Amino acid sequence: MDIYKLAVRPLLFDLVKADPEWLHQQTMRSLSWLSHTSDRTSTKWVQNILQKSLCLEDSRLEQNLFGLRFPNPVGLAAGFDKDGVAARIWSSLGFGFAELGTVTFVGQPGNPPPRLFRLPLDQAALNRMGFNNHGAAVMAARLADEKGLFSIPIGINLGKSKVTPLEAAAEDYLNSFRLLKELGDYFVVNVSSPNTPGLRSLQDASMLSSILDVLQKENNTHKPIFVKIAPDLEWEAIADIIGLAKTYQLAGIIATNTTIRRDGLKTQVIEQTGKAPQEEAGGISGAPVRDRSTEIIRFIWQQTQGEIPIIGVGGIFTPEDAWAKITAGASLIQVYTGWIYQGPMMVSQILTGLLAKLEEHELNSISEAIGLEFKS
User: Fold this and answer.
1) Is 87 part of any known ligand binding site?
2) CA–CA separation, 312 vs 213, rounded Å?
3) Residues noted as catalytic
4) Inter-residue contact 357 to 337 (CB < 8 Å)
5) 167 neighbors 111 (Cβ within 8 angstroms)
6) 157 labelled as ligand-binding?
7) Which of 10, 132, 186, 344 has the most CB atoms at less than 10 Å from its CB?
């Protein structure tokens, strides 16, 4: 019985109608407490319960990619743990890796609220958070205290500070990377959020090239670096980014961020504002981006013959959603909105489903499923 979907979600979403951002803040406070009191007997008991209920270990789900061991392919997407306050607890919730951030060099409050909305009819969320975080130095100090205590790979998603002009973006990313490069297992250049003015223009080949150039020159420890792209890019622009990924020897591409498209939505009015989604700024995540993100994964795989690792994210709710992205070419996948709607059991349910898919297709490991669509 899934208590979350049967009782907790209806209570919070429909009866109490809890504000999404407030609910997220309360969740993060609880997870942060668990993460930072893990040496206490009572907390260890809670963590053991979580691990028994939510974690699934199977050697068929393991992968070694870009020098890191992933116990399973399901990760937490950036945006949930913006400041890394709960970094030690994500493994106890079943995740095979977790991506912290987005973090900026200069701490910032983000956009004014309300800035996070649920769209239940569309199994989606609309957010215009604006990279609210305490800054790279605060995250660095926190992670330095916990170095060596993580049992899964920890990624760090880097964004541009809002106060930094676009022409100085490369230096801004570099400053964050310098503070954090010894503390993350991999790094992501986020140039695809729609909620920082002008940020998506950094996906342009010349602008992105300047950022990747300074980061790789600083990257003396050879940390894996990814670029995260928007689902709204044209094929030609994605091809340009693939070229840059090869030129700068990136570890891979994350596909995709939220979309600014509004077509096909069932939601007519957002209750908190009384306006239609088409009138509200921000990016939409969840089911509406599912197919487009999978199309982009497929395109990247085809253009690179599977030589560039892809982390697939966007609209993953079920094992079938996860399998579609993996067989289209994703080596790893990430969840966020689906986890909010489906609840904490979702990760183990997806992993159980992936194991069933492996058996159905007579495969010995998840790595054999990557790009299966294109294998004869």
Assistant:
1) no
2) 24
3) 193
4) no
5) no
6) yes
7) 186
